[in-house]
């Protein structure tokens, strides 16, 4: 498979993705659903139709700077995002593996998308526990990155076409084997019954008003 990409990504792509989220407090299920919709729309707007997903166009977006930093300057982080001087500054750990750097960029870009509304969208996460809220928000950004780099239909298509070897799938989508394993488990293609909490089978689904996104 090859990657097809437009010559020009819409400069307002971030604004378009932000508009997909209703400006209200989200449940975790809502947030996961919206993140996947946003990832799918981003691929559409970028003209990307197959693995592996190019991300270099993010570097050319308005008011966005992506910088590689050595591990010692990253304080054990793989990536970070700040808004300063009228632009979003995304720092990526240059000493991480290539697949990890790609995942970190996708993850941090989700924080850019959420930035203007995050306090509202995630206000109910953690029930007043700020650390718990931050962990949940990070998981949403992870989910967005997974959906952007390993879209549901593409992964399932590869699996149904007989590519079921973990290293082969990871190579096809240019992600780490661990990221691919987690994605396959999330999509139900790998069994993880031992570690899956029983109550997760019965949690409520995303709110009905999201079906129109």
Describe the protein's architecture and organization.
The chain is mainly α and about 210 residues long. The chain has helices at about 15-20, 30-45, 100-115, 120, 130-150, 150-160, 165-175, 175-185, and strands spanning about 65-70, 80-85, 85-95. It folds into 2 domains: about 1-150, Arc Repressor Mutant, subunit A, CATH 1.10.10; about 150-195. Helices cover about 45% and strands about 10% of the residues. A hairpin with a 2-residue loop joins strand 2 and strand 3 (about 85-95). The longest helix is centred in the middle third of the chain and has 20 residues, at about 130-150.
Topology:
Elements: H1 13-18, H2 28-46, E1 64-69, E2 79-84, E3 87-93, H3 98-114, H4 118-121, H5 130-149, H6 152-160, H7 166-173, H8 177-186
Parallel strand pairs: 1-3
Antiparallel strand pairs: 2-3
């Amino acid at each position: 498979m090859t990657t097809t990409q437009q010559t020009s990504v819409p400069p307002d792509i971030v604004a378009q993705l932000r508009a997909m989220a209703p400006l209200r407090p989200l449940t975790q299920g809502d947030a996961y659903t919206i993140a996947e919709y946003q990832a799918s729309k981003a691929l559409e707007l970028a003209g990307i139709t197959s693995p592996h997903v190019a991300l270099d166009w993010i570097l050319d977006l308005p008011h966005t700077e992506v910088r590689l930093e050595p591990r010692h300057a990253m304080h054990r982080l793989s990536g970070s995002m700040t808004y300063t001087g009228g632009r979003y500054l995304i720092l990526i750990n240059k000493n991480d593996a290539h697949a990890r750097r790609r995942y970190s960029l996708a993850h941090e870009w989700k924080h850019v998308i959420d930035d203007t509304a995050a306090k509202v969208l995630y206000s109910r996460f953690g029930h007043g526990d700020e650390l718990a809220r931050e962990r949940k928000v990070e998981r949403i950004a992870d989910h967005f990155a997974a959906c952007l780099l390993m879209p549901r239909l593409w992964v399932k298509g590869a699996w149904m076409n007989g590519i079921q070897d973990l290293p082969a799938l990871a190579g096809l989508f240019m992600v780490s084997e661990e990221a691919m394993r987690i994605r396959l488990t999330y999509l139900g293609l790998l069994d993880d019954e031992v570690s899956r909490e029983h109550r997760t089978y019965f949690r409520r689904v995303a709110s009905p008003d999201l079906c129109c996104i």
